[in-house]
Each structure stands twice: as structure tokens, then as C-alpha cells.
User: Which sequence fits this backbone?
């Protein structure tokens, strides 16, 4: 009996810290979850989820990434009603789940390293911030961690169930966001380089059935996802003379194949699908067919919105990659090459510094897990820095491997003999962890003096709440409100289902008279000749900041000037005021 009690105590001593950290993460993510005004993207995601919830349906479009968040958020609305809180509940729960998943990596990270990794994830400024924002990025963190767990479990004990769980997580990642393609390239390329000699010998023997677990995991995921990479040939459409990814919205949907390109795209996809099937059946027929059924069953069900929008299968399987290929070359949201390293140094200095030291130390050990983490971190930083569109939420894709590396590095220090390394590490953590928590709380919760945060991009301004309060009595009295379509977000979410609110296009003539007793209009539109006569019918006005952006004065700066300004921003957030969309609300005449 004593042995049994000791066994239970030992298991609890490993489990309880992760339960505590999961609850800590959950509390941080749920606290004042609905306090912040909605971000531009958030309001779009919440509104289309609400439309699905109210029976208006949903059709996938690559602009808004995959369907998973819309379907999951609509389900949350069904359970708990539609509100600002429930609209953000999915990322908050998934961000907390990411912390809990670290429990299944504790053997690879080490006892102390695993606990600290979970803590780093729980209090990370960027992980916390984007766990409280209704976007897809924190969901991708969960899918990446689940795939990593499946890989390590399968390598340790090659059972088919780990492949099936991997197929589900892989499918959900592709149904969430197009960054899944980048992560899949990183994971599969690493496994390919590791297994290339073995794969080559197997191909020469024309037998793939006896591959090692890492090679088998590679072949399984590679063959499943191969057809989804066929739209990548759109990169070469210029030399081919056909349109595989339409760059002009006047011709049709952006990213879609056009004309003869439609037939070529269909042929390419079918060819890749046949190759995928041949590889899978040549490997292990039964597990591959079950895995393919799970992968494509989920993919088709989600992209077709449970078979109510069959066109969504095509917009997902081809249009998603095609659309973002086009956006890459447009450089719509351009940033300098140092954007992500600079962002990491401001918010994720703790895992950044620890991971650099860890990478230098662990590279020589050549352990599969540690080498993959180093490869993952380096490739993520390179690929996202090269991408034509750089935004702050993509930092999560670089931060995750850094946090895992940092946790592993802590374990390595505590495994070694001697005290000086442990002393330095403990001193660093005693300084860095409280400061990280301060940065996290400052960036995520309202305060008396809000700081200008680099994580902010197209965020709803705080004045929106005041404008809503001023408009509430008018709407309650039966008055109508017109909102210029150029300024419709986040108002469409806030006034969802309200028949007294309409969204006319006032930016270009001919312009019909706005029907509202009150009017919200773009700052530049109100000065145009076609709209000016109608504004005389209104009374008092108020200018307000509808959306705000971090000031991008760092663009074009020399590295010396950037370095001189870094300490002031890092320690005190010394920077100019936010950029903003200035908007005007016109109230009725008294």
C-alpha cells in the first residue's frame, strides 16, 4: 500500500503544477476578456460567426482564413449567447489549452524545464495578448503543439492512434489558417532531411512498408497534404502564360484560377491527389486510408460548412494558397527585415535570450527534439521575415519554438554539475519573469495611462465605447443611424441585427441621401462635394479615433538610431502617439 501511495504522490507532483499553470493561464485570459474594444479583424470574425449562429449561413473566403473559428464560435454562441465575451472565448480557451499540452512534452523538456515552459506560455505577453483576440493565430499554436506531441509519441512508440490524432490536428490546422502550410513545410522538411537516405533506399527497393517511425510520420503527413500544395504552382503562372492565381479582383475572385487555368488547376490537383494515394497505399494501406479519411473528412466537412457550401471545398483547396500568393507579391502590409527580431526583443526577451544560449549549447548534442526546435525557430524567423505581409500576430509562430527551447535550456542547466550556471540562470529568471509579467499585464489590461504597444494593429479606439453610449438613447428612441461603409467595422458587430442601422457607400458619387438621423462617416469622405450638402441636415459633431495603429516611425531608421531608441521603448514605452483612423459622428439637430 505504501508503494501505491508513493506512486500516486509522485504522479500528482508531476501533474499538479500543470493544473495550476493551466488555471493561471485560464484566469489571465478570461479576466476582463470583454473590456477591450473590438479589433477590426475581430469584429469581422465575430459578425460572420453570428450570422452563421442566427441561420444566415457562412461561405468560406480566403481573405478571412479558414472556417474553423467561425464554426466553433457559432457553436459557442449557441451555448452561451452572442456577446463580446463569448466572441473571444475560443482563443482564450485555446490559449489556456496550449499551456496544458506542455504536460505531454515534460519528458523531452525535463521536469523543471516543462513546468517553466508552461509558465512562460501562460504569462508570455504576445501569447496572452493574442489569446484575448478573436483571431486564428493562437489556434495554430495548439495544432502545432499537438502535432509535435503526436510525432514524439509515435517515434517513441509507433502506434497507429498517434497517426490518427496527427491527421486530425493536421486537418484542423489547414482548416484554421494558411500559416499551416508554412509550419507543415518546416516540420516535413526537417523530417525529410533526417530520413532522406532511408527514403531513397526504400524507393530503390520499391518498398516503403518498413520505414522507421520518423520516416513513416513524414511520409504519412506528406502524402496527406500533397494535393493541398498543388496551388503553389501559381508562383510560376507568369512563365506558363495561364492564370492559376488571379491577381486582379476585377476579373474574378483573387487567387482563383481563370480561363484555361481552371482546367489546368483541376488537372494538377488530380495529379497530386493520385500521387498522394499511390504513396500512401505503397506505405501502409489500412492506417493511411483511415488517416486520409479523418484528414479529408474533417477538411471537406468544415470547408463546405457541413455540406451546405460545396464551393468552399474549392476555395479552400485551391483559393486559399492562391489568394495569399497574390498578397505576398503585393506587399500590402510591408515591414522592414528586422521587424520580428525587434518585436521579439521587446516582448519575448526572456525566451529569446534563453533560446539563443540553449541553441548554442544543444546543437552539438544532436538530439532529434532539440535540433528540430532550433530548426523550427530559425526557419520560422526566416520565412515570416521574407513574407510580403508582416503583422504582429504572426510573432506567435516564432515565439512558440523559442519558448520550448528556453524551457529545454533551463533543464539542461539544472542537469549539469556545478552551481555557477544555476546561479546565473536563477538570477536572470528572478529579474526577467517579474518584468515579463509587468509587460504582459500592461499590454493586456486597461490602465489609467494606456501605453503605446507595438502589438496593436488596427485596434478599435477606446472612444468607440463613448460614442456607443451617446448613440444608445437615440436608437432607444427609435432614431436611425447611417454608418459609411468605409467605416463599417467594428460597428457591424456592435449593431448586429439592429434594423435601425444601415451601412451606405458614401465614398463615391452618385450618393443617395443618408437615411439615418445620426451619421458616422470617414474623415476624408465628409469633405467631398457629393456628400457635403447632406451634412447640413445634422447638428452637433464629434471626432473620434475609430481604429489605432502603432506608429511605424522605425521604418527607414538606421540600425544605430534604432538601437538608441530601443531602451526607452523597452523600459518606458517612450514613443509618439498611435496612428489612427479619424472618424466623425454627426448627431441629429435639436
Assistant:
Amino acid at each position: 500500500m505504501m508503494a501505491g501511495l508513493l506512486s500516486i504522490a509522485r504522479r500528482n507532483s508531476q501533474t499538479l503544477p500543470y493544473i495550476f499553470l493551466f488555471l493561471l493561464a485560464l484566469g489571465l485570459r478570461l479576466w476582463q476578456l470583454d473590456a477591450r474594444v473590438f479589433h477590426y479583424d475581430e469584429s469581422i470574425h465575430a459578425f460572420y460567426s453570428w450570422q452563421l449562429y442566427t441561420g444566415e449561413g457562412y461561405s468560406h473566403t480566403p481573405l478571412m482564413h479558414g472556417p474553423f473559428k467561425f464554426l466553433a464560435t457559432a457553436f459557442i454562441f449557441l451555448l452561451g449567447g452572442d456577446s463580446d465575451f463569448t466572441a473571444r472565448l475560443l482563443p482564450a480557451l485555446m490559449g489556456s489549452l496550449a499551456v496544458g499540452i506542455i504536460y505531454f512534452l515534460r519528458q523531452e523538456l525535463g521536469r523543471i524545464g516543462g513546468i517553466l515552459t508552461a509558465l512562460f506560455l501562460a504569462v508570455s505577453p504576445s501569447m496572452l495578448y493574442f489569446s484575448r483576440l478573436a483571431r486564428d493565430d493562437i489556434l495554430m499554436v495548439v495544432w502545432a503543439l499537438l502535432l509535435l506531441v503526436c510525432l514524439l509519441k509515435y517515434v517513441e512508440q509507433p502506434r497507429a492512434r498517434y497517426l490518427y490524432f496527427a491527421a486530425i490536428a493536421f486537418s484542423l490546422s489547414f482548416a484554421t489558417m494558411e500559416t499551416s502550410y508554412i509550419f507543415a513545410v518546416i516540420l516535413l522538411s526537417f523530417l525529410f532531411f533526417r530520413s532522406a537516405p532511408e527514403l531513397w533506399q526504400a524507393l530503390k527497393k520499391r518498398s516503403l512498408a518498413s520505414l522507421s517511425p520518423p520516416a513513416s510520420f513524414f511520409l504519412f503527413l506528406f502524402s496527406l497534404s500533397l494535393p493541398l500544395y498543388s496551388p503553389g504552382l501559381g508562383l510560376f503562372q507568369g512563365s506558363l502564360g495561364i492564370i492559376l492565381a488571379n491577381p486582379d479582383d476585377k476579373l474574378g475572385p483573387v487567387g482563383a484560377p481563370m480561363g484555361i487555368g481552371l482546367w489546368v488547376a483541376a488537372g494538377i490537383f488530380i495529379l497530386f491527389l493520385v500521387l498522394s494515394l499511390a504513396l500512401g497505399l505503397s506505405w501502409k494501406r489500412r492506417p493511411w486510408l483511415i488517416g486520409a479519411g479523418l484528414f479529408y473528412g474533417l477538411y471537406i466537412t468544415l470547408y463546405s460548412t457541413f455540406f451546405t457550401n460545396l464551393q468552399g471545398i474549392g476555395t479552400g483547396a485551391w483559393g486559399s494558397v492562391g489568394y495569399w500568393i497574390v498578397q505576398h507579391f503585393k506587399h500590402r502590409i510591408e515591414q522592414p527585415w528586422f521587424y520580428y527580431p525587434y518585436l521579439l526583443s521587446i516582448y519575448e526577451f526572456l525566451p529569446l535570450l534563453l533560446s539563443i544560449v540553449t541553441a548554442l549549447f544543444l546543437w552539438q548534442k544532436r538530439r532529434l527534439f532539440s535540433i528540430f526546435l532550433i530548426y523550427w525557430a530559425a526557419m520560422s524567423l526566416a520565412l515570416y521575415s521574407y513574407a510580403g505581409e508582416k503583422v504582429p500576430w504572426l510573432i506567435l509562430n516564432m515565439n512558440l519554438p523559442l519558448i520550448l527551447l528556453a524551457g529545454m535550456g533551463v533543464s539542461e542547466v539544472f542537469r549539469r554539475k556545478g552551481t555557477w550556471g544555476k546561479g546565473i540562470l536563477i538570477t536572470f529568471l528572478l529579474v526577467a519573469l517579474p518584468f515579463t509579467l509587468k509587460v504582459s499585464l500592461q499590454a493586456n489590461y486597461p490602465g489609467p495611462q494606456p501605453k503605446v504597444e507595438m502589438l496593436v494593429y488596427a485596434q478599435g479606439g477606446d472612444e468607440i465605447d463613448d460614442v456607443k453610449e451617446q448613440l444608445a438613447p437615440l436608437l432607444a428612441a427609435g432614431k436611425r443611424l447611417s454608418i459609411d461603409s468605409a467605416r463599417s467595422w467594428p460597428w457591424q458587430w456592435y449593431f448586429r441585427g439592429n434594423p435601425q442601422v444601415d451601412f451606405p457607400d458614401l465614398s463615391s458619387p452618385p450618393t443617395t441621401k443618408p437615411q439615418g438621423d445620426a451619421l458616422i462617416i470617414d474623415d476624408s469622405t465628409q469633405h467631398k462635394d457629393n456628400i457635403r450638402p447632406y451634412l447640413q441636415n445634422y447638428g452637433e459633431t464629434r471626432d473620434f479615433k475609430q481604429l489605432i495603429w502603432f506608429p511605424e516611425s522605425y521604418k527607414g531608421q538606421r540600425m544605430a538610431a534604432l538601437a538608441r531608441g530601443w531602451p526607452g521603448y523597452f523600459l518606458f514605452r517612450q514613443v509618439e502617439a498611435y496612428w489612427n483612423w479619424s472618424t466623425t459622428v454627426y448627431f441629429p439637430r435639436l
